[in-house]
Amino acid sequence: MSKSGGRTDVTRSAVLAHIGAHGATSRADLARELGVSPALITQHTRQLIADGLLQELAYSPSQGGRPARLLGLVADSGRAVGVKVVADHVAMVEAGIDGAVTRSATEPFDAHADTAISDLAERLRAFISGGGGSAPLLGVGVGVPGSVDEQHVGTVDSTQLGWSQIPVGEMLRRELDLPVLVENNVNALTMAEALHGQARGHEDVLVVTIGTGVGAGILSEGRLLRGRAGGAGEVGHVPVVENGPACQCGGRGCLEALVGEDALVAQGKANGLIGESAGMAALTALADEGDPGVQQLFSTAGHLLGRALAGVVNVIDPEIVIVLGEGVGAWRHWTFGFEPAFRSSLIPRNRSVPVAVETWQDDRWAQGAASLVLATPFDAQGTSGEQGRLVRERLALVRPSHEDTSS
């Protein structure tokens, strides 16, 4: 696939995201802000207008040259629901066609219960029923910590959730009677970063999450790299220490077993830094207060993470590394070990790669899941399969009303 072809999906979605974030915009400004050619922007915006997603508005004021026609969103052209699933809770958002979150909710959830999927469907039904507005619901995106065979199938293997070959997509489609797309939650988050975050404008990106686990999403030539069975990006299971602590994947000495939240808390207790009932909040508070033992614990974790990520960067050659997740709240303590280990382990041509650390928002995961649905109208590679076709059919239903009002 050519580099320009791989970028098509993200460019069209990025047009909507940019106009949603910044308001009515000219084609020339879009080309400049998104870093693509005016001809490509003209091509994409023409199709977005035909699809009923964009509309032409008034001309912008002229500074002596020819006035530029502004483009704005057709606000009621569609919306999506996204849900992030973890072992003990779900985070849900509703997002407009531009990806902007319009409402959100967090609910308790027991992933290990026998009724987990029907419970998930019940929470989604309740959330969906609380929505308003005239925009049609295009579908539901689901982000899970684990491997997903294909987005449009949605069979999940997740050690964190205790799910093995669970047909999440099929079961939710039957329960909700809506298109449902399922993806690894870090992959979904990477899509949100490409559309709305610091990955926008870059084609080759490594997104790393630290928190309860360590995960990664990879954009290569503008496309999400999923691997053979959707398991690409499992950097948390890179072997780091021979015969090290047991990991939930069944191995020993994995990166996640050394620097994940459970591992850090266990080390803090073993070293007498925190009490048996304390957790990550206590560790972070002590580090903030200047406790040298806890600061060293975070610094060591940063060192291990830095060396491991340097190896990944050397292999995939990204333009930027983005770090986020629950763990970034303590990043200033990680960075003392991370920066020297990371930079010294990179090959010379990669040593200037920027590392961006994002302030964490829990509903960002769910926004990523919603992006799975919102990107399907531009799915040239067929990743969304039959579910993407159903989303596009729902989107097509709103076209006639927009066409009538413009005639």
Automatic annotation (TrEMBL):
Q: Which InterPro entries match?
A: ATPase_NBD, ROK, ROK_cs, WH-like_DNA-bd_sf, WH_DNA-bd_sf
Matches recorded under Gene3D superfamilies: 3.30.420.40, Winged helix-like DNA-binding domain superfamily/Winged helix DNA-binding domain
Residue span of the signal peptide, if any? Answer: none
Q: In which domain of life is the source organism classified?
A: Bacteria
Family, similarity comment? Belongs to the ROK (NagC/XylR) family.
Name this protein carries in UniProt: ROK family protein
Species name: Microbacterium koreense
